[in-house]
Amino acid sequence: xxxxxxxxxxxxxxxxxxxxxxxxxxxxxxxxxxxxxxxxxxxxxxxxxxxxxxxxxxxxxxxxxxxxxxxxxxxxxxxxxxxxxxxxxxxxxxxxxxxxxxxxxxxxxxxxxxxxxxxxxxxxxxxxxxxxxxxxxxxxxxxxxxxxxxxxxxxxxxxxxxxxxxxxxxxxxxxxxxxxxxxxxxxxxxxxxxxxxxxxxxxxxxxxxxxxxxxxxxxxxxxxxxxxxxxxxxxxxxxxxxxxxxxxxxxxxxxxxxxxxxxxxxxxxxxxxxxxxxxxxxxxxxxxxxxxxxxxxxxxxxxxxxxxxxxxxxxxxxxxxxxxxxxxxxxxxxxxxxxxxxxxxxxxxxxxxxxxxxxxxxxxxxxxxxxxxxxxxxxxxxxxxxxxxxxxxxxxxx
Length: 398
Known about the structure:
The longest helix has 21 residues, at 29-49. The protein contains 6 helices and 26 strands. The chain has helices at residues 9-14, 29-49, 183-187, 210-216, 297-307, 374-377, and strands at 3-4, 20-26, 82-88, 93-100, 106-114, 136-146, 149-162, 166-178, 193-196, 224-228, 235-239, 247-255, 258-259, 262-271, 274-286, 293-295, 310-311, 317-319, 330-334, 337-341, 347-350, 353-356, 358-360, 370-372, 380-385, 390-396. It is 14% helix and 41% strand. The chain has 398 residues and is mainly β. The strands form 3 sheets. Strands 13, 14, 15, 16, 19, 20, 23 and 24 form an 8-stranded mixed beta sheet that branches. It has a 6-stranded mixed beta barrel with strand order 3-4-9-5-8-7.
């Protein structure tokens, strides 16, 4: 991967550009651990029904090849932890969405949507196009396949507002009629929909992304957005520039390996006595839409053993909460620079359980080998440059 030692004039000015800020709320660790425990119980019950045989995990990419990359997303948001507000229509209709660099479409549930929460728990805000004076009919079918199943509906167009002052006109997005494919991760989640920040090349229906349209309509100063993820509190997403007060030192930029997801290549991964060199390219996507870090099953198994993590029934790993100070740092070498995550920060802790925030998943080509989720992004302020097709990292201030 090409390492950019100097920052271009465009990027140097990004820190001084006019920015729009979106507050990102954090889903509590208790909820992530609760979801993990439920998966453990469900898997155990299923295994007992199968006569003690471990159930097969039906995660797309592990057992199926990706036939149509435009309609495949390699996760199901069960581990998504940060969400923020987007507004659609006139007068405004407000939704909580996951701002997801690992996908490219905007979708929200429509009035009358099936499997879209219920009035008692997991209540969802629903889009009503009849109430919007800026709505325009499209009508083309929309279907996207997630790790747990499909979400379907149809495309429409309307004004989309980020924060208070970025208004994208005529944005193509999906009104979802059935969200059953996301299962309990959606039913119980605090988010209504997804706002993809990947590239249009992976957008279902070729719909231009919200951020691409913001650039084309001159609604942002610079073709840049950046994430600061709060450790024990809210985070912040900026559009049109980045906030140099949120990080230490200088940003180090790396070029994308592919402008689909925000995909890069890594030089090495190491922890304790575990070390993986790039005998061949180690691909990774930087993904704000998942809390965990994932890697090939065989590599995660070795890495987990090196830090003292034990496998659970579902294939995730846990650690002894009394020994968190003994966990070695996990280091990702990217573009010649080491990015270390302190051992104690590789754990999601709640309810007396310490879940190792790494999970083994195998994706066939063209899927990535690794996903660097929020566990990584909490430690490093991350700047995404759409025009230069680069990602910049710097140590996040705490």
